[in-house]
Amino acid sequence: MPPQESSTLTAPLPAKSVYAKYLAALGPGFLFAGAAIGTSHVVQSTRAGAEYGIGLLGFILLAVLLKYPSFFFGPFYVSVTGKSLIEGYRQTFGKSVVALFALVQIPVTAIIIAAIAITTAGLAGSIVPLSLSPPTVAVILIALCCALTFAGGYKLLDWVNKVFVVILSVTTVFAALAAVPLVDWTLYPATAVSPLWSTATFITLVAVLGLMPSDITLAIMNSLWSEARNKNQGVRSDTAAEKIDFNIGYIGAAVLAACFVIMGAGVMHSQGITPADGAVGFASQVISLYTSTLGEWSGVVVGISAFTVMLTTLLTVLDGFPRMITASYYTFTRVENDAEETRRIEGSRAFLVCMVGLSLLAIVILYTLMGSFRLFMDFVMVVAFLISPILATLNHLTANGATVPQASRPSRLINAWSWLAIATLALLSLGYIYVRFIM
């Protein structure tokens, strides 16, 4: 049985215990940031700055703000019910929705794993000359991360992620500050690759916002990580502690997204540098953003840091996605009369099968769909964007469903905010379909 919430969470606490409670809750929010600071930031945010200056920065920050409730409902649901959003889907909508969700997510998550792996391989190739092709390096990295994730579980993932996210965050903020004087702060510069009100800009915007700050499935992974942390600690964190942990990761991801746009605008756009189409070439350009602003000394340090953070992102998704599919499988196969799930995810055969299966599918994608790094990245982002209104709706209805006590449900403000996000994402998705396939 899952551990019950500690009575100390509902009783008045001494100051020291309050601080200890909030410190103990930290973890899933950092994992959120570690998973988010991947292709969306390193690739798409940098490319947006390189091609449009700061022209798309406002849209990126608006998307991060708009999506907040959809992501927050993940840790919120765990804090109120002690269960993940996957279990919430089952109790709110039934097994068929969980099964459909898992079937749709399997190819999508495999594509995202491939995208992160090839970006990480590109960074490796920009630091150390490699004779192997980027897809082959990506396969090696996937195998390494699978072994570490399966052996170390949540605790190892949490520790490694915190260390490298902090290192990259500090260096990225300093590099962005150094690039600020180089930026043309025109709201939408005339030197952008296409006019603001154009089909090309709209298509690019959808691709950039698809994983900004991340795919909404990260809300589900976040809820599973919160559940894993609670089980490791034997105590369920309350909503206030979950919110602080989540906000740290979410705001951090937003700040770093802006930093990469500023670096792309200041270093690449101002000099008319076109983003490279290959994974290694583009990764080398990202490293040059730091050396151009912080000095040559930073090349090796930041290059290694960027690589390790992308490696951490790969570790994170190779834990989170198989965890999500395993939880879906458990939920779908559990006996109807069993109120609680007693099977363990970490180290289980089902988790191993899901991890290996998704990895193999990602490897197939690496060797068959990687003709153009840029087109591949755009495809990943667009797919994530098109399914985002559906996932946002599921999260909203679950957080406000019968499994959540009336008094504990989200506020009217958060719910109105969530519906606004859902409507906006749906309209933009329909607009993209119209522009691409009908117009």
From TrEMBL:
Taxonomic superkingdom: Bacteria
Protein name: Divalent metal cation transporter
